[in-house]
C-alpha cells in the first residue's frame, strides 16, 4: 500500500511551480509574479473611477498575503479609465481593452525581460540570486478576466469552451498563449485585442494564471444560482419562513426575517446562508435536486481547503461529476426558470 501523498498548500507546492522551475537554468530562483486589478468607485471626489494595478509575489505565504497590514500587495500603477467620443459605441469597449493591454505591456516590460534572461537580486542576507519572474496569477473579477484573456463574454477565459459548452461535464482544451495567437488570425471568439500584454511574456499561459476568485466564483455564484434554485423549488415565502425558524446558535448568523430581503450581501453573509441551505431544503424538494445542490456545495467547500492532498482532489472530481450527473433534475423541477440549457 502506497502511503505517499502530495500535499498542496502554497503556490510553490503546486505542479505548475515545479514545471516552471524545471524550465529555468540550474541554480536559478523562481519568483512568481502576481498581478491584480479592479475598477473602484471613489465617491469622495465626485463619484470618479480608479483602476489600480497591484503586484505581489506568489512566493509569499498565503497567511501573510491575507493580512492587509503586511502590505504584501504594492500599487504598481493606476490604469487609465478612458472615455471615447467615437459615435460607434460598440468600438468603445474594443478601444478600452486594447488600451488596457498596451498600458500593462509597457508597465511589465522589465518583468518580461527578467523572465527571458533573468536578473541578479540580493536576498535578505545579501546573497545574489539569479532570478526569473514569470507571471503566474492575475486576480480580478469575471468581466475583466475576459478582457485580460481577449475573449468575448460568451466564451471561457481559461478554456476553449463557448457558452453552449459551459454545461458539458467534459473538459475542453486549455486556453493557451499559442492557441490565442492562432485565433488572432481568424478572429474567432476574441474581443478585438490584437496584442495581449502576456503574449510575449515567456512561460505564461492564460489557463494557468487565471484562478477562481472566491468571492465571485464561489459565494456570489451560490447566491445567484443555488439560492435561486432553492427559492423557485420551495417558494420564496417558504424559504424565508424556514430560515426564520432556525435556532440562534453562538457564532452563527440568525435570520429572523428570512434571506430574500437581504441587501448589500457580503461574503460573510453568503457563507452563513450557504452553511444552512442543504438542511433547509432537505425533505421539501426531490432527492435528485437535493443531491445536485449538495454536490455543488461540497465542491465549493472542498475547494477552499487550506491543504489539498490527492485524496481531496479525488473528492473534488467526484463532487463535480455528481453535480453533472444529476443537474438535469433541476431543469425538470423548474429551478432554472425560463432557461432550457446550462
How many β strands by DSSP? 8
Q: How would you sum up the global shape? A: globular
In round numbers, the mean pLDDT is 87
- Measured by DSSP, the beta-strand proportion falls in 5-15%
Structural class: alpha/beta
The biggest beta sheet is recorded as: 5 strands, mixed
Distance between the termini: 41 Å
Task: Please trace the helix and strand order, writing H or E for each element.
Answer: HEEEEHEHHEEEHHHHHHHHH
Radius of gyration, in angstroms, nearest whole number: 23 Å
Note the total helix count. Answer: 13
Written description of the protein model:
- This protein has helices at residues 15-22, 62-65, 90-107, 109-117, 142-149, 177-186, 206-209, 214-234, 236-244, 267-281, 287-303, 310-326, 328-332, and strands at 29-30, 33-37, 40-42, 48-57, 74-79, 119-122, 128-132, 135-139.
- Helix 8 (214-234) packs parallel to helix 10 (267-281).
- Helices cover 42% and strands 12% of the residues.
- The model has no long low-confidence stretch (mean pLDDT 87).
- It contains 13 helices and eight strands.
- The protein is an alpha/beta fold and 342 residues long.
- The two termini are 41 Å apart.
- Strands 2, 3, 4, 5 and 8 form a five-stranded mixed beta sheet that branches. It has a three-stranded mixed beta sheet with strand order 1-7-6.
- The protein is globular and about 65 Å long.
